[in-house]
Design brief:
The chain is α+β, with helices and mostly antiparallel strands. It has three helices and seven strands. Strand 4 and strand 5 form a beta hairpin. Helix 1 crosses helix 2. It is globular.
Length: 106
Amino acid sequence: IRAVAHFLDKDYKHIRNDLFNLASKMWRMPNDDIIIEEYLDSLEIKKQSPLTHHGNKKYKIGNFPLPGNYLIRCSRHWTCLKDGTIYDTWDCREWKAQSFYKIGGK
């Protein structure tokens, strides 16, 4: 939930309440991938396939090559990356980006 709040640049409690409301309607937990994906889809923010390099290797979050504001899904975790700075409670630079969302286009 915190990563989504950073990504959308909105108050944590606002995002938390939105996700809790959606989760209760779908009978799921608010941090479930399906809830987060549905929430972002409702904001018309679409999921992107992972970026790859050197023979289809996925980029590590610490080496993500694009500038901008991203919400990145890695193994069992969501993190926010803004112009190369990770907004997270722990260091996940070595984790591979499984998929990502970007505000303002592809």
